[in-house]
């Protein structure tokens, strides 16, 4: 018999596994782009300092460079710890959400319910915020606007979840007019899209990437970040679907057990 604690433990284990693999994906696809962005920032800072030294005085002493609190080697190692902890937390939240919403998910198959919940979570929590505020490399951005950017991003998270709710509600409402899947999918998708577009028009636009920053490098980093989230949510969805799968024994299997 599956209890609430049992379901949560399964979510934590799946989240840990997914977080470690997502960390490996981020290490391979994202870290080289972060190093390249930091190199561009350091090159720009060195050129600026060199220019200032010629403008002021040749006797000026070079400014001391601020040492980072954590070295790049430490940051790379900490990446796996961060994604593992994030995966565990997300897996636990996913399991709690699955337990609370299971009866409202109109399918008798637990695996389909887990996959549907993971897909909805990825769209609402990852994809909707990404399309409005795509992430930038650590060396890009104005530190003075971090509060504004954080609040705006959190708003997109809430809006993403509201958009999912609007899509599901509209899809169920459309079921009154026919059982054809395209009707429900079309109406639900339109409600989700309308909510997202309306929110995008209201939320402020934030673009602090310098025009001189390489566009190819910027989008490689962004796609690596999106890919990391996709790996995490995909593994959580499929992993949890496998762990909660309850097969109905076939007639022959039941006869064997009874014998």
From TrEMBL:
Query: One Pfam family for this entry, by name?
Result: CbtA
- What are the boundaries of the signal sequence? none
Looking at the UniProt entry, the stretches that span the membrane are: 7-28, 77-100, 112-131, 151-170, 182-203, 223-243
Keywords from UniProt, A to Z, are: Membrane, Transmembrane, Transmembrane helix
Tell whether Membrane is among the UniProt keywords.
yes
Query: Which InterPro entries does the UniProt record give?
Result: CbtA_put (IPR012666)
| Entry protein name | Putative cobalt transporter CbtA
Species source reads: Kribbella amoyensis
């Amino acid at each position: 018999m599956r209890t609430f604690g049992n379901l949560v433990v399964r979510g934590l284990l799946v989240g840990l596994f997914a977080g470690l693999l997502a960390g490996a994906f981020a290490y391979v696809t994202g870290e080289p782009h972060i190093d390249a962005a930091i190199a561009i920032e350091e090159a720009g800072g060195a050129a600026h300092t060199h220019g200032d030294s010629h403008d002021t005085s040749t006797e000026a002493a070079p400014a001391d460079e601020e040492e980072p609190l954590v070295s790049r080697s430490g940051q790379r190692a900490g990446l796996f710890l961060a994604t593992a902890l994030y995966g565990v937390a997300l897996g636990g939240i996913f399991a709690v959400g699955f337990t609370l919403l299971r009866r409202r998910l109109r399918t008798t198959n637990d695996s389909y319910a887990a996959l549907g919940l993971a897909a909805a979570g990825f769209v609402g929590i990852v994809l909707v915020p990404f399309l409005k505020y795509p992430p930038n490399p650590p060396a890009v951005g104005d530190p003075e606007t971090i509060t504004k950017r954080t609040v705006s991003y959190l708003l997109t998270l809430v809006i993403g979840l509201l958009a999912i709710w609007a899509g599901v509600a509209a899809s169920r409402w459309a079921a009154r007019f026919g059982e054809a899947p395209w009707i429900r999918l079309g109406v639900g998708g339109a409600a989700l899209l309308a909510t997202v577009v309306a929110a995008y028009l209201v939320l402020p636009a934030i673009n602090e990437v310098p025009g001189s920053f390489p566009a190819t490098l910027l989008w490689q980093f962004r796609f690596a970040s999106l890919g990391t989230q996709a790996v995490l949510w995909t593994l959580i969805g499929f992993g949890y679907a496998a762990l909660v799968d309850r097969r109905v024994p076939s007639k022959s299997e039941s006869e064997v057990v009874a014998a």
